[in-house]
Amino acid sequence: MKKTKLKNDFNYDFELLGISSLIKPYKLAWHLNKELNIRLVRMDDHQVYNKQNEPCFYVNYLHETLLTTIRLFRNKPNEPASSKWMLVPEQTHCDYIIMFKSDDKGLGNKLQKTLKDIVSVDWVAFLPLPALKAKDNFIF
pLDDT tens digits for 71-120? Predict the structure, then answer.
């Protein structure tokens, strides 16, 4: 029997920042809210299916306006039993992932600078989308 493969050509119109920090998710969201004058709000956990087709749930915060969307995810799942299934497995050193899209081209640099100024944040860097296999985890 002949097999047909479905090719998805999604437009990845967002950017990702990886963050290394031991701070709790709500505290990081609070710092970002305070420093950027935004309102990151806790949403339902982001659900992604792993290779065994089991659901994994990740902390999800959202700030959305007409021109800007900022999401904060925890890279490790909520359940300790599935802790090996990272949201972005290529970036195991990242504790958090920020996904953002905006008409403001300087937003990424502003986010990176703000995060670097937070005392409990150890490391912040842009994650290259073309090199990530897990970029489909960020399609809603």
Answer: 999 999 988 766 678 888 888 889 999 999 988 888 889 889 998 998 88
d(CA 32, CA 16): 16
Q: What angle do CA 73, 123, 72 make, to 5 degrees?
A: 15
- Is the CB of residue 27 less than 8 Å from the CB of residue 118? no
pLDDT tens digits, one per residue of 2-43 = 777 766 666 778 899 999 999 999 999 999 999 989 999 999
Residue 121: strand, helix, or coil: strand
- CA-based radius of gyration for the chain: 16
Q: Fill in the amino acid letter for 62.
A: L
Cβ count near 110 (within 10 Å):
14
